[in-house]
Structure formats: C-alpha cells, structure tokens
Design goal:
The structure is a single chain. The protein has 176 residues and is α/β, with parallel strands linked by helices. It has one domain: TIM Barrel (Alpha-Beta Barrel), CATH 3.20.20.80. 32% of the residues lie in helices and 17% in strands. It is built from 5 helices and 8 strands; from the N terminus they run βαβαβββαβαβαβ. The protein has helices at residues 29-43, 65-70, 93-106, 126-138, 155-163; strands spanning 8-11, 47-53, 74-78, 82-83, 86-87, 117-118, 144-147, 172-175. β4 and β5 (86-87) form a beta hairpin.
Length: 176
C-alpha cells in the first residue's frame, strides 16, 4: 500500500469482548510488542501511530498500553467530547484534552508524543473546534488531529478544521 500513497500505520487497540481482536486481556504484552515491531519494520521511517480511548487504563486496564506505545511515533488519545452515542466525559473540549494527556502519560505514553485527537466531527460544532484548538495551544502542542467517519460533517465544521492552526502555522491531519 505504500506504493499507493499510504503514509504510515495507525493502530486502534480496544476492548471487543468475545472477538479475536479484543486487546483488553491479560498476558498480551508479548503479542502487542511483536505486532508493533512488525509494523515498525514495515513502516520504516513512515509514521506509526496509536489511537484508542482517551481514558486508557481507566477504561481498559488489561490492554498492553506500554507495548503499543513503545514503537509509536505519535500517540492519539480519542479525546472526543461528544459522539453519536452522546456526551463523553464532561463534554468540555479542554477537559477531555487534558485528561487524555494525563491518562495516556499514566499508561506509559511519552508526553511529547501525545497529541489528543478531536472527534467525532459529525457531532461537533465550529465553536467546539475553536475550543479544541485553544486546548492544544494551552498544552503547548504543535499538531492538530481530527477524526470523522460520519458522512454528515457540516461544511461549517470542515471550514473550521481547514482554518485550524497552532502557533499560526496550520498543522492539520484529518482521518476519515
């Protein structure tokens, strides 16, 4: 896929009770280390990132967080404030941003690599994107990351994402 323009790999380990991709099980450190080592070798100098629930061990205590973090270039806690399922945390962008950094650091993540991700964009408002940008600035982050999977992201939100920047330098990455 690199020949087709793939820039790197992003993995999203989560709990999936009863599924063969449930990472919130005891004794998976070795498997996670091997998995990430295989991706690191394949990616070479391309980006290797990890994304998952912003509460990390508080939500999934058996997931081998440190093993996933070890080879990663960027760590993307899903610090969403709302989703199609409803409000997340207190529904406050800056609070979820700070909590994502704290929880991922506590789970073994390097704070310099942690860049909380905004989303779900289909449930977001332009003013909330502004608050997310301010939270990134307050945390001294140089990157912005967004997530959208729904086809119903408003044009106003897309416009605000396109305008978003930290330190007056646009640094936007949107995943869809």
């Amino acid at each position: 896929m690199f020949g087709e323009g793939l820039d790197g790999y992003f993995v999203d380990p989560e709990k999936a009770t009863g599924k063969n991709y449930d990472w919130d099980l005891k004794n998976l450190n070795g498997l996670a280390t091997d998995f990430m080592g295989t991706l690191r070798a394949a990616a070479g100098n391309r980006t290797l990132g990890v994304t998952s629930h912003y509460l990390a061990k508080s939500t999934w205590p058996s997931l081998p967080w440190a093993a996933f973090f070890e080879e990663a270039d960027v760590l993307l806690p899903q610090s969403y404030w709302r989703s199609t399922a409803g409000t997340i945390g207190h529904g406050i962008q800056a609070d979820n941003y700070r909590v994502g950094i704290q929880r991922w650091t506590s789970a073994g993540g390097d704070p310099a690599k942690i860049m909380p991700m905004a989303g779900e964009l289909g449930t977001s408002k332009p003013s909330e994107i502004n608050e997310y940008v301010q939270a990134a600035r307050a945390a001294g982050k140089s990157q912005l990351h967004f997530y959208a999977w729904q086809p119903n992201v408003s044009q106003a939100v897309w416009n605000r994402v396109a305008e978003a920047n930290v330190d007056d330098v646009p640094m936007v990455q949107a995943a869809e």
